[in-house]
């Protein structure tokens, strides 16, 4: 009989804990994150959150990147689909920045059309990998 209060507490607390867990990241939030060296001012914005068959997908944009000379994109990436694990491994604190971010709509649409995947590694590693691919010319471009 003395276990009844504990059981009641677990039933009540479980949905609250799950809700808090889900709501940590939300569309519109701007975060500071663990960046590559020299990009400490770069910011990440969660543009959209959606439920997909493989789990929650966070569509993010980045600004303040340093691509180097001759590289495209003007220091920003408009769309990257990432996992909760990516955000957990990358973000450091919420920012109150009102900076402008690129519109991710075309990237999200292309991702859906391609039935694309989701990054599960830290953001800084994603950026490094993307830039490495661009630098080697391994990405086909539409003319």
UniProtKB/TrEMBL annotation:
<protein>
    <submittedName>
        <fullName>Uncharacterized protein</fullName>
    </submittedName>
</protein>
<feature type="signal peptide">
    <location>
        <begin position="1"/>
        <end position="18"/>
    </location>
</feature>
<keyword id="KW-0732">Signal</keyword>
């Amino acid at each position: 009989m003395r276990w009844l209060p504990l059981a009641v507490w677990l039933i009540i607390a479980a949905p609250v804990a799950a809700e808090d867990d889900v709501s940590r990241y939300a569309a519109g939030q701007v975060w500071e994150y663990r960046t590559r060296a020299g990009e400490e001012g770069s910011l990440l914005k969660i543009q959209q959150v959606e439920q997909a068959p493989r789990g929650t997908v966070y569509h993010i944009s980045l600004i303040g990147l340093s691509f180097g000379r001759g590289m495209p994109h003007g220091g920003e990436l408009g769309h990257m689909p990432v996992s909760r694990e990516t955000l957990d491994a990358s973000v450091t604190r919420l920012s109150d920045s009102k900076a402008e971010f690129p519109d991710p709509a075309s990237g999200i649409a292309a991702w859906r059309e391609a039935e694309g995947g989701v990054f599960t590694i830290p953001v800084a590693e994603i950026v490094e990998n993307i830039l490495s691919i661009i630098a080697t010319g391994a990405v086909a471009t539409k003319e």
